[in-house]
Fold this protein.
Amino acid sequence: MCGIAGIYDLDKTMSRDALGNVLKTMTDAIAHRGPDAGGYWQDTEVPLALGHRRLSIIDLSADGAQPMASPNGRYEIVFNGEIYNFQSLRKDLEAEGSTFKGRSDTEVMLAAFEVWGVNRALQRLNGMFAFALWDREKRQLHLVRDRLGKKPLYIGWAGKNFVFASELKAFRAHPDFKPVVNRNTLALYMRFGCVPSPNTIYEGVWQMPPGTRITLVFDLLSAGDDLAKDCQPYWNPPRVVEEACHNPLRGSDIELTNQFEDLLKGCVQDRMVSDVPLGAFLSGGIDSSTIVALMQAQSSQRIKTFCIGFNEKGYDEAAAAQAVARHLGTDHNEIILGPQAAQTIIPQLPDMYDEPFADSSQIPTYLVSKFAREQVTVALSGDGGDEMLGGYVRHQAIPKLWNKVGWWPQPVRQFMADRIHSVTMEKWDKLVSKRPQFGEKLYKVADILPLKNMEDIYIHVMSRWHNPTEIVKDSREPLIPLHDPAMLPRDLTFTERMLYGDAISYLPNDVLVKVDRASMAVALETRAPLLDYRVFEFCWRLPVDARIRHGQGKWLLRQVLARHVPDHLFDRSKQGFAAPIGDWLRGPLQDWAHELLRPARLEQEGYLNPAPITAAWHEHLDGKGNHAHRLWTVLMFQAWLERWMK
């Protein structure tokens, strides 16, 4: 786990020293990703410079340092991530005559490129990675991002320089980079609460989508070219899903559980390889409990586990985590935080995330990462379980609702929605007093009723602001993979369509961004066994009822966990890993939010339309609606704007 950066001077006017100085400034800007060492390399024949910040995990010696050259000198690489199958690849390469100086996965990658070629080697890599590989012979730069998008990689322009980096703050460190807010991207952000690839908040900068590569021949490029169109998939999710669905797994429940457990054991074991202290996050939920159970079953020592909790009711899973840890016999560590401790993190978020990001679980994710980093350098997590195996309420509730009402004529559904909205949320709550927040839930149903199809419903459910172009001035929403029919597998059920949307959009653009930036802010490497691409392919070969059965998501994962932990320790309602932002905005964060949301301020800045934001703010303060997610989305943009654009 590291940070990478690089520059190519298309104009070929920068001196070698100037190029090196700019590269060092860019690389220093992401030193938090790799505090152990910094490395720099420049080609002797072309104006290319590569930089690396190292967080030493495998082979702590100088033999693992980067940038690293291949044995014959053809390739030079800077690499962020881990290759989990590097030991088996090394054995195969040794059988073909390769020799190695050290024990790093980087050295194995370079040998694979030499022996098998870039394309063939890439298909054999299993891991989380973003790397830049310079081919000195062909004068080509290959930039590659891992299949599911664990590791970030940004590409773009700073004046006449092509630049790439792990984080956008490296772009800001380049003296020729001119930051201009992309209003169309801002509209996407207001809808989703994150920035979907291949977009970024800046004009002229793109994030490479998961599972893609780009090969640049600089003599054929002009500064300012659209680089996103040249990113090509080497792993194609629509085709992977279609092939998996056409080759379904057969067997009894026990046989499927055995297969899944064997696969997960291998994925966990691969991620326990480390030359530095290793532990795991443990929330007490299905996903993290399963990962910890499989870790402890394969370890001769007590696994270090980490959990944080909040004093606020409904946001604290510490007791559940402690019970699971006690049963498994882990070396458990927990800390309970009051609201003040969590709120002190908020001013740091714009620096941490570089561009607007509004998943409020970014706060506890950072806090648990910081807590774990006091004892370990690597932590395994349960990320991916919900998206792979149907763990969110929406995966079950929305298709169930649509099966009941979707056959009604659209005018009838519109009429029913209007009737629901004719009564206020407060009145609905009074009418059905035994069901908490009944009015709010009923309004959500009413919002879905008039929609035309499952595509519109999924986008609606995932949206913060449902009309973002009315929120962002002079904007229009660009096409993203989630909207692209070519990215959609054929013949999916409604539930499968939602799972697939999560996998290609919500997971890489929200969940994995959250975890990467929060953990790397404290130089903690996180590894997610459930995000192994083999797990993705396995899950898509499962019948739907092996994912969701009898109204319960993650059915198959539950069967694996039940072999290690008693049902009563984990069989409870799902609880999100989030902060109580709604309450905080009415309480200790109210003055901070009020200043950022002042209509005059919004008008003067010129990006956002104050009227709908002000209306939502007043409704939230008055308790007439819970607009926490919408408001947090605006606030995180405002905080980012204040930090980076003033």
